[in-house]
Description:
The complex is a heterodimer.
Chain A: E1 13-15, E2 22-24, H1 40-56, H2 64-72, H3 83-93, H4 106-118, H5 124-130, E3 137-140, H6 148-157, E4 163-166, H7 174-182, E5 189-193, H8 200-210, E6 216-222, H9 228-237, E7 243-249, H10 254-260, E8 268-273, H11 279-289, E9 295-299, H12 306-315, E10 321-325, H13 332-339, E11 349-351, H14 374-384, E12 390-392, H15 401-407, E13 419-421, H16 430-439, E14 445-448, E15 464-467, E16 476-477, E17 480-481
Helix pairs in contact in A: 3-4, 6-7, 7-8, 8-9, 9-10, 10-11, 11-12, 12-13, 13-14, 14-15
Chain B: E1 2-5, E2 59-64, E3 68-73, H1 74-77, H2 81-87, H3 94-98, E4 100-103, H4 108-123, H5 140-150
Helix pairs in contact in B: 4-5
Amino acid sequence: MMGANSQPFAFQLENCEICGKRFTVTPYSKAGPRGGLLCAKCSKELADDEKKPRANRRAPRSGRRQKQSNLLDGFAQPGAPSLAEMCTKKVADNINDIEEFGDLPPQLLHRLGQILCKRRVLTSRTLNLFLRSDLNFIDIYDAAKLETQDFEKIFAFMPNLYHVNFRFASQMKDKVVDYLLDRDLKIKRLQLDAANLISDACWQQLFRKLGPQLESLKLSNLDSSFDDETVEVMCRECTALQRLKLKQCWKMGNRSLRAISELLSLQHLSLNFVQEVDNEILLNTISKTSPRLRTLSLEGISTADDRLLDIIHVNCRALTKFRFSDNAVCSDRGFVALFTDWSNPPLEFVDLSSTRDVDNSNPDGPADAIGLASHGFMALMNHSGPGLQKLNIASCRHVSRSAFEEVFAAGKTYPNLEELDVSFHTVVDDYVVGRIFQCCPKLQKLVAFACFNLRDAQVPAGVALIGGLRAQDPIVLEGHHY
Amino acid sequence: MIITHLSPARLVPLPYFHPIPSLSFAPSTTYLFIGTSPPPTPPHTMSASDPSSSSQSEYVTLVSGDGFEFVIPRSTACVSGTIRRMLEPSSRFSESVTGRCVLENISGIVLEKVCEYFCYNEKNKNQTYVPDMDIPPELCLELLMAADYLDA
Lengths: 482, 152
């Protein structure tokens, strides 16, 4: 023996330094903390222990991904989220271990439903957690995984339902509607998205039964049924309807539009037609409904012209939300006329995105500007500036830089503006954005996709600047790099 | 954070707040019971026995239903709307006089997490990136109910 720490050769027997067991030494045996050898089991444990810290030895997390993700959700408030929000997320993470929610307050239940739907984990099993007979509303933002009997279960367990909202309800069939009608529910607000297995006959039956009690009806993405005749039945039966939204219903055409003019108690109207509609019928419908309207949303109606804006100017007295997007006929002069000396109080929500001339050979458009351009924008802000909360003027490409400078000049304030979308305005640069931040003290979200002259804007804390050229860069907050 | 254990817990009625939804007790559930508290006793009947803890003190004491006490800075505790309104000097609730909030419907283990959140929130004030706080899965539902009650 040469010394105490001389190592035994391979295939010799040795006692393990840690556990004391006798074992055969191999070339893979590890040395223990005091220089002796370790048996195979202890060697492995030691190796595992060594590996662990290496796996954790990553660069400190800057959270850039998380920050960008939050920004795109329009969330830029510094500091920790609320405890309730963190716990709700944690509950959603562990949804499969939860047997029941107990007496969770309705607003938390709703938020939890939102998170689960966003993660696409609302299944038959998790649905059971939400079925409470004491509640009178249900919102399922992604019902794609629910089947016929799940829908029936909802109506069976919740007899007091008055608010029903199912999106992606692709497996909701005639049978479910029949069951719903048998249950004699007091549903007043109904929203269904992509419920394409419901036939026209069944829709009509639904309106005949529930029609008089319905106050709000929102239907979207219906392509295989819901034709003009069904809409006519709906307008005949649903006499108390205050809120109507029909988006992307492929079979609806002029007859439907004419029928809608008969709805006398409408206060909120949102239409998005797939088929092209006749301008005269549209004018007639809007002039009949508009005096009572608080919301008017018309998307993608390509035939509408300045006469529509004129009717709105003359008739509307109570409008707070106005959307008129994707149109290349209405002129800047029409918008100026609409917003000048309008007896309607200031609007709170305005979306005039993509109202512009589209002619690639003449990118600046005709001299007499088409769509919301410089003068229309100034007239809009003069009229609605004090009340405006959300404004979307994306792609209104004929608004000049001087119009932006005029609208956001020093001394002007838009005290309530929280969200502004100026995407595809190439005249918007760092100076204009700086002016916007100055003039809008409450601004939370500025969307600026494809604003190519926006380079190094100084973004105040708490404002989410979405888009912009350098989204990959670290966020700059009032000159401090984080 | 100082944690002491009192036994038995001193019973002080909680102030009654309208914004807190009143929840009914369901005996079948094992989750935290949060019920409506009795209306506040007029301040003059309160035992302001401890003269040292005035309403202006920098620290406040939160007491759990099972008697654990947590002494934390007033500013951190006021993240919770419920506690802030309890401690509001103008309210003249016993809590604002003594600087002691007894949360009878919250257990010590949950209240400890709540206090951890208060400190975590203070520490991450004005940070753009906030690392996640560790919440044990078995506590999250009870903590959620407590967060709702505390308006935090």
